[in-house]
């Protein structure tokens, strides 16, 4: 872990070519899935798909930011991670708002579309999670990237179960429950990243 648990002097991180390549792959996958789920979620009237599309977009932006600061000092990487963590938590709040709106409309989503897109999204996020797994114990910036992919994979499994629930019951509640779970994941992961980023920034200022 880069200087977050020692008293070494601040030093710029040497750009990791493997991590850079992985980030570009994850960025392109997330942009593609953002478009797929945005259209599919609107067509199926699904809160969980729509929420997941926003998550894909947020992750794509996060990966782009991570690419931009790969060669920066730990302080600036932590600063960017702090902003990303706050964004992840804000995503959770946005999803809660969408859930309330969906409940007010009371329109059950289209289960088949939810299921098919959910499976495609799961495959995409499993690929991202696997290629990013080796970097999960890095600094707060690397950790935030890993947490994004992990949460997405978990969320996609939940979307698939929601589709099954909607198909079996004809109710919108499975979709709403899953969207709520995704909101919780976003807020808790955001808290983790913000806490670690603040710790790293404080350490660098003290040194």
From TrEMBL:
<keyword id="KW-1133">Transmembrane helix</keyword>
<feature type="transmembrane region" description="Helical">
    <location>
        <begin position="88"/>
        <end position="105"/>
    </location>
</feature>
<feature type="transmembrane region" description="Helical">
    <location>
        <begin position="176"/>
        <end position="194"/>
    </location>
</feature>
<dbReference type="InterPro" id="IPR058533">
    <property type="entry name" value="Cation_efflux_TM"/>
</dbReference>
<feature type="domain" description="Cation efflux protein transmembrane">
    <location>
        <begin position="23"/>
        <end position="199"/>
    </location>
</feature>
<dbReference type="GO" id="GO:0006829">
    <property type="term" value="P:zinc ion transport"/>
</dbReference>
<keyword id="KW-0472">Membrane</keyword>
<protein>
    <submittedName>
        <fullName>Cation transporter</fullName>
    </submittedName>
</protein>
<feature type="transmembrane region" description="Helical">
    <location>
        <begin position="22"/>
        <end position="44"/>
    </location>
</feature>
<dbReference type="Pfam" id="PF01545">
    <property type="entry name" value="Cation_efflux"/>
</dbReference>
<keyword id="KW-0812">Transmembrane</keyword>
<feature type="transmembrane region" description="Helical">
    <location>
        <begin position="56"/>
        <end position="76"/>
    </location>
</feature>
<dbReference type="InterPro" id="IPR027469">
    <property type="entry name" value="Cation_efflux_TMD_sf"/>
</dbReference>
<feature type="transmembrane region" description="Helical">
    <location>
        <begin position="153"/>
        <end position="170"/>
    </location>
</feature>
<dbReference type="GO" id="GO:0016020">
    <property type="term" value="C:membrane"/>
</dbReference>
<feature type="transmembrane region" description="Helical">
    <location>
        <begin position="111"/>
        <end position="133"/>
    </location>
</feature>
<dbReference type="GO" id="GO:0008324">
    <property type="term" value="F:monoatomic cation transmembrane transporter activity"/>
</dbReference>
